[in-house]
Amino acid sequence: VHVARTMSADYVSQGGAYGAVYGTLAVFLCISLAIGYRFLRSATQDSDQYLTARNSQGIVSLSLSFFATGAGAWVLFTVPEASIIGGPVALAGYTLSTLVPIAIFGWIGPIMRKHLPFGCTFSDYVQLRYGSLVNVYCTLVSLLYLCLYLTAEFSAIGDAVLALCDPADVYDAAAAGGVTDKGHRLKLGLVLGVSLCTLLYTAIGGLPVSLVTDKVQGVGIFLFTFLVCIAAFTADSGADGRSDRWEEVTTTGTGDPAATGAGGSTYGNSFKMAFILISALTCANMMHSGFQQRVWAAEDQAKLRKGAIGGVLLT
Known about the structure:
Distance between the termini: 29 Å
Number of strands: 0
Order of helices and strands: HHHHHHHHHHHHHH
Shape: globular
Radius of gyration: 21 Å
Strand content: under 5%
Structural class: mainly alpha
Helix content: over 70%
């Protein structure tokens, strides 16, 4: 909030924000529904294809899908935050934490396909290998993680839109959570719009149409990242005192004041943060059904491996 208020920038009005958000959703929904309807009418689309897109995805599609699945809207905030708090070491840890799960699925995915060629998710393999009790436990863990994942994703989407609006309209330190009623309404409308849009096209087209949107998302992330890099490197880094702690950010990081106090961070804290990120996110993403479904959506085992390698390189 402080940064948004002190930076000199042109902000989008609330009406403009609503128009941009719902206009984008409407266009994307129409295109997605058209693609979903085409899949629905396809002669090869049966219930199995609807749920698994079995043996239908090539290397490029898998690479973009792995990449898009692991790079949601939350990367706009969590990756910069980790870099500022823990420096380059934490950034490297975050990078590895997004790469390792894809690499693991590229390694164990072909094994899972070999022993369970008609599976759908990781829970099918767990059921076959370890039985019902372990499967129930893994399913509950997966549901918990997906709940947290969606919460982070929706929160990041809402925060990204608020960052484009005039801070005077959407931020207030005295309000609940530092966001005004207008800001909360904008975020709620956006979250509901994205949820309903995704639900509609997925309900009509199933997993195949979701994989198509992954391709669009993957390309969009590249374009958006390119624009953000241009904006970041052309900005006046000395404005408003924002370069005061640059040396800390590029070495050990500024540290979390709640954990390290006013003295900042150390390399020990940075490596600790990197280890936590790698271990936590790797274990969590192994329970992500989005990664699991790509195992059986691949055309064959060789393309699954190459698709995972492509996903790692893109990420």
